[in-house]
Write a structure and sequence with these properties.
By secondary structure, the protein is an alpha+beta fold. Helices cover about 30% and strands about 25% of the residues. The chain has a four-stranded antiparallel β-sheet. β3 and β4 form a beta hairpin. α1 crosses α3. The longest helix is centred in the first third of the chain and has 14 residues. It starts with 9 loop residues before the first strand and ends in a 10-residue tail after the last helix.
């Protein structure tokens, strides 16, 4: 797949050990698209390491996913796939960076079946 700049983009799942990458991506997204979140950059940037550890574990498990769109070593977009808390059969996709959700959805992503 190509990024709007013409560079090749690959899509991959965030790994559980990538806590600092998750923090960087989310904070950058908060700065670039603050209206996409229910909290402000100023509130989240001060969260301790334990917050980021727990958040990363939550999106690398079986019911949630964080996909990264990368152009070489640079994350150019990301999207959360979140299981619906009320039912095991549905979920939603939350876009973190403008333009990234379309590219990721075009890969015909199917979230892992609920365990």
């Amino acid at each position: 797949m190509e990024h709007s700049t013409g560079a090749m983009v690959s899509i991959r799942r965030l790994e559980p050990h990538e806590v600092q990458l998750h923090r960087q991506v989310r904070l950058r997204a908060l700065q670039e698209a603050p209206a996409s979140f229910g909290h402000a950059f100023e509130d989240i940037v001060v969260e301790p390491d334990g917050y980021w550890d727990a958040l990363t574990v939550s999106v690398t498990g079986s019911r949630q996913i964080l996909l990264l769109a990368e152009s070489g070593p640079v994350v150019v977009g990301c999207v959360y796939g979140l299981a619906d808390r009320a039912t095991r059969e549905t979920g939603r996709i939350d876009r973190l960076r403008p333009g990234s959700a379309r590219e990721i959805i075009e890969m015909r992503l199917v979230l892992p079946a609920a365990g």
